[in-house]
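Hi R.,

Here's the chain you asked about this morning:
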Amino acid sequence: MASAVGANWAGNYEFGAARLHTPSSVEEVQAIVAGSPHVRALGTRHSFNDLADASGDLISLVDLPPELVIDADARTVTLAAGTRYGTVAAALQSEGWALHNMGSLPHISVAGAISTGTHGSGNRNGSLATAVSGLEFVTGRGELAQVTRQAPSFAGMVVSLGALGVVTRVTLDIQPTFDVRQDVYVELPWDALLESFEEITGAAYSVSLFTNWRGDSLEQLWLKTRLEAGEPRVLPGTVFGATSSLSKIATLAGAELDNTTMQGGVPGPWSERLPHFRFDATPSNGDELQSEFFVDRAHAAAALSVVRSLGERIAPLLLVTELRTVAADELWLSMAYERESLAIHFTWKNEPAAVFALLPDLEAALAPFGARPHWGKVFTGDARSVVPLYERMPEFAALAGVYDPDRQFRNDYLERVLGLPQ
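And the predicted structure, written out as tokens:
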């Protein structure tokens, strides 16, 4: 079945592909790929740029049945790649299992998240892609490939930006379920964060900070504490100069409060605390743009200070900034490749002209820190600035040539940003 493609979730990008296919089986995916000169996979449309677009055909697998298979001995779950994280989390929790981390939105698809290096938070928590131990995908010419973590080039196949093929099934590492409590603190002094960055971001299993870059304090500090053996842990009323909030707080000023997960220190399953937003609610209306840049945590204070110097230019265009940390990994195109990372995220107002006028200056300010842009969000860098940030890029280009010899999965984005010719 084929239909008109339409726009992405935020409505800021209109897909140019001629057709959208929604196959009901892997065999159909193979046939579509084999019959199309230019084809790409489309997830839940949460990218803010042309990463997922194609000049010919798009394939969406988000409506295929999850078909979750838990292997308790191996501690893995295998599932359809288009499955949303909220669906996976609920199924695992019901069977007493958990993932190591979740993104802020449980609404995104597994394949889309891992292919772009999307992440949760925590000094010792790797991105969502680090849980991947196996992949099944349709390569160029419609062939089916199955690879595991033992494959020599597996580290280049997980965060792949769709350049190797259409991912159809994914195997993820799992662990026994655990409970989390979520506590929100307000008015964290900037001086405290810059002086004690590692201590603050390591104060809980998952930590998020929210700011508008104005004033002497960050508005919010969210601590998501993992509870061992189900025992609640009492947190103090003040941490690092920030005060505990007694009422539920949204990530965005004026946003609906009933779409966020339980706060106030109430213990609950990981699946209902690690995401910021509830799976049964709409996270926002999508009327926004997003950017995100990853720097080495060793340079966190300096990088944050540079961004603060642009605060008066950033704030009028901003809905909110979130600061999170990501553990280093070995995935070739991961934004956290071989680098303990700070992710500086911007949720912008939907004012593209003004945002794109500011981005070059923001990117230039962060360039001395080797800032890597999130693949699925808005940035202005191209292959000249992006490719040098990834030392394994030549090997990835060679891998793409092996699995996509006819360049069926190439598009404008891959040529512009990775230097992979169409």
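The two ends are 26 Å apart (CA to CA).

Let me know if you need anything else.
M.
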